[in-house]
Design a protein that fits this description.
Helices cover 39% and strands 24% of the residues. With 328 residues, the chain is an alpha/beta fold. It folds into 2 domains: 77 residues, Arc Repressor Mutant, subunit A (Orthogonal Bundle); 208 residues, D-Maltodextrin-Binding Protein, domain 2. Strands 3, 4, 5, 6, 7, 10, 11 and 12 form an 8-stranded mixed sheet that branches. Strands 1-2 form a two-stranded antiparallel ribbon. A hairpin with a 2-residue loop joins β1 and β2. α1 packs across α4 and α2 crosses α3. The chain is globular, with a radius of gyration of 27 Å. The protein starts with 32 loop residues before the first helix and ends with a helix.
Amino acid sequence: MARIMAPLVAKGPIVCSDWNDKRCLCYVPSVELRHLRYFLAAADTLHFTKAAAQVHVSQPALSAQIKQLEEEVAALLFERVGRSVRLTRAGEIFRGHATRALREIEAALAAIAEEEGLHRGAVTVGVLQTVHAYLAPDIVASFSARHPNISLKLEELSGPEIEQGVLDGLLDVGVGFNPAASEGLETQRLFEDDFVLIASRRHRLARRKRVAFAALAGEPLVLLSPAYCVRQLVDGSFRAANIAPRIAIEMNSIEGILATIRSGAMATILPRFSLGRSRDPMLSVIALTGPTLKRGVGLLWRRGGYRSAASKALAEQVRATVDQYWRS
């Protein structure tokens, strides 16, 4: 009796010569640059219509490209929720890799462009709020005059955001705290700044040259919110002095804090750099002791990372602007 053999069924990847067969071990997903750009726009906005406008395509076109990308990676990257979307776990994973991949490609293009000198390119820098307020205008004006064909983007960020941005490759260089918290960063010193008590001329401590943290017990203060490293340093100094500060107001803007201080009877603690070059006649600046509080500010680079000519030129401009600031 003849035996009937059941057909063999592949239960996994197969070895073949057809690269379009996704079961094949040699299959490589066909992911293109536009897929990455469209995906990241949607991941940032969590809204396909807004993402389409950001990358200058129609919403149906963007949706089709996202669907194509999901088919290529064999995973659902977005969960549709009404008119908005949210990233799936696979989408969160893909986002980090897509961001780094796109940045690497941009870095490669920048390196090629450098063969022509600083005639084109782009640089993104993250800057601390206190530094951004007083140095950014001079940095932008001088850099743009010297390198008019280089696109410059300055982002005002907190210290941790700057460090993470540099580590993730979202920022080419940062102007943040020195030393940096992460070992994955290299720093170059720019300056050291001391913290001072700032109060209106009418304040009871206005005529003092210096005051200890312990003397501020019960003093109503206007401080930055706890999310800022400046505030965290201040809180640490109060703990060192065994004092629980009386925080009357928390704000996210240094300009807002200084405006409040000018018109009221409260005080604040900020880096001296926050006052800018000119001496405000409405404010008194008092040195702090017990403990003396200082912070370092420097340029932050990803350790071992590529430094484009544009980012090095920007760093040089930052150093020159800082030197000019302290000389004036």
